[in-house]
Amino acid sequence: MRSALDNPFSPGSDTVPDIWAGRTEQLSDWRDVIRPRRLAGLPERGRTVLGEPGLGKSSLVRRIAQEAAATGDWVTPQLRIPSGADPLKLVASAILRLADEAGLPSSREKRIAETLARVQAVAASGISLTLHKKDGPEPYTVLSGLLVEVGRAAIVRGNVALIHIDEVQNITDESALSQLLIALGDALTHEESVTVPGGARLNRSLPLAVYLTGLPDFEDMAGARKGATFARRFKTTTLTALDDDDIEAALQVFVLSGWEVPDGNGGVGRIRMEPDAAAAVVELCRGEPFLFQLAGERAWYAGTGDTITREHVLNGWRTARSEAIAHVERILARLPKRESEFVQAMAELPAHERSLTRIAKKAGYVKATDAGPTSQRLDTVRGIIGRGTLYTFRHRAVEAYLTGSWPNLD
What we know:
The chain has 18 helices and 13 strands. It is α/β, with parallel strands linked by helices. It has three domains: about 25-240, 3-Layer(aba) Sandwich (Rossmann fold); about 240-320, Helicase, Ruva Protein, domain 3 (Orthogonal Bundle); about 335-405, Arc Repressor Mutant, subunit A. Strand 9 and strand 10 form a beta hairpin. Helix 11 runs parallel beside helix 13 (about 310-320), helix 12 (about 290-300) crosses helix 13 (about 310-320) and helix 15 (about 335-350) crosses helix 17.
């Protein structure tokens, strides 16, 4: 009954898996804060979701975008920024599609027609409009202007326009990054004068929502270099590993009732998972969304019957070990030298001895305070460790890899 066509697990950054685990805080933030406030005309910052590879940043916002589209909101596709690409071109093209969905191209207003023409020029030339000193406004002003027009149309329609820009750490051109952030920020903070029942006039924010997703490196590029303006306009969340309870809850459908699949005879069958098998998945993935999907996928393929056993999970994991190792090693390879040395020194100490003083000494620092900035970045920017009287690993797959035999089963 189990086949590739009905496998609900999907490891990969560009998918929203059928078996979803955790991230309830971020999902609730969209449902209960961002969308209702923006619809009501109240100000609300954009969201920046950062984290190490495999933590489900893109999948999270893609799920939010799916929910938004299902309720009738206008949503851009996931705008992945390739390294070296001109982000203004990509974003301009996406905003033009939103404008088309909002019906703006059919408008007879001269102002809108001129704005559309200018944004089409940005979509064709991008940041080079600025570099070549073309006549007319800067690209960021016309992008912001069209977003404002989309927002005005959304007020009339009674929905939200959501923009999702992914892999933002790849925007290495400071001029392009500055123009993009200012364009998005200006549209988010724009206030429109509207008439309310009774004839009174008041200012309201536009129903626009912006999500930026990427690696923690973006914090330096946008937060430190752009300063307080970026912080005022975007709220940053750094994702860390899931709690085991979140993964257990995601697998309960298998344990209690089974996952529905076609039975091959025109009916419906159910694939169940033994409690020991679910516990093995939780233990192996260490709270990593990517590794959770990977372990589930391989367990599914390790047999063909209607019950996934612990043996299936372990046999499937044996085929995934090299991918799990590569996943963690990519994270470690991204760390600058000082951060890497700090993490290695911390891993070499027993858990009850992981104070800053002992870690700093192990890493070769003269004074414990010298290691402070490094530990702070590993905590607040990367989400790999947690600081306290005793330091802990928040990235539990990194800890397991550095301190034990994981991902080997022995």
